[in-house]
Amino acid sequence: MVDTINSLASRVHELLVANLTNPAASAADVAKGLHDVIARATALGPDAAWLVGAGHSGLAAVAFLHRQIDRALSHLDAAVTAGFNDCVALHASALRPLHEDPRFRAIYERIRITMADLDELTWIHQEMHHMSRDAARASTENIGRLDMGISRLPQAFIPTRVPNTPGVRIARIDLAATQTALQRAIMKAKISRAGGNASISAVSYNRNDSRARQDAWRADDLDSQRRQAATARAFVERPGVSTLVVPCPPLGSLVCPG
């Protein structure tokens, strides 16, 4: 099979989903897969450089999760060289202890962005936060439900604007992977609940059909509210926002939601 940018982007998405779904069990396989993506993307030339960045940023995340700071910084440095520029992600609370590390600061100061792209990066991280919050609420709402309905977790569309810097595409894959992982987790829980309710219904003479209908109506109403909220928070580009490539805002000046 011939490698393409789209096929490798899909592979990165798949690996990130695996890491989000079960990071402890999949770390070695994810790391191996990301190294393979880097090698294949490098062979495709400059147009695929951002995928090299995606591979290294993914490896940095895996290394940081396992407290391998030197390795994480090495991969982050390589990711920035290849085009990674998600300066919002580098303000996540888990990374703030690194802000005083001169190696981290030197890497951060090399990042370049446009204000238009920074707007989208900020929106991407806000959307990840919204999705995680909705998933947590949906899980709580499922407790004790007697109906057998199954619904997907609504999500906002990923922006389709042409970014000014290729690194924005890395953040879009991160968002897509987060959406997929959360969708799968919610669907797995709902299918398990629905199956359990169906089994109980099949053998029980004391089914509470009225309660089940009420639970289904309530769930439909909440799903509708979430769909409307997801639609309302779609990304909208600001008119006249700068597309000039400049250094990122100073370290410590941004907020990463969640």
What does this structure look like?
It is a single chain. Strands 1-2 form a two-stranded antiparallel sheet. It has helices at residues 5-21, 23-44, 49-65, 69-81, 102-108, 115-142, 168-203, 209-232, and strands at residues 112-113, 246-247. By secondary structure, the protein is mostly helical. It is globular and about 60 Å long. The model is unreliable at 202-206 (pLDDT under 50). Helix 1 (5-21) runs parallel beside helix 3 (49-65).
The total strand number stands at 2
What order do the strands of the largest sheet run in, or round the barrel if closed? Answer: 1-2
Instruction: Tell me what portion of residues adopts beta-strand conformation.
Output: under 5%
Order of helices and strands: HHHHHEHHHE
Name the helicity range: 55-70%
Q: What are the segments in which pLDDT stays under 50 over at least 5 consecutive residues?
A: 202-206
Mean pLDDT: 87
Give a summary of the structure in a few sentences:
The protein is mainly α. Helices cover 64% and strands 2% of the residues.
Properties at a glance:
single chain, 258 residues, mainly alpha, 2 domains
Write the layout of secondary structure elements.
Blueprint: H1 5-21, H2 23-44, H3 49-65, H4 69-81, H5 102-108, E1 112-113, H6 115-142, H7 168-203, H8 209-232, E2 246-247
Antiparallel strand pairs: 1-2
Helix pairs in contact: 1-2, 1-3, 1-7, 2-3, 3-4, 3-7, 4-5, 6-7
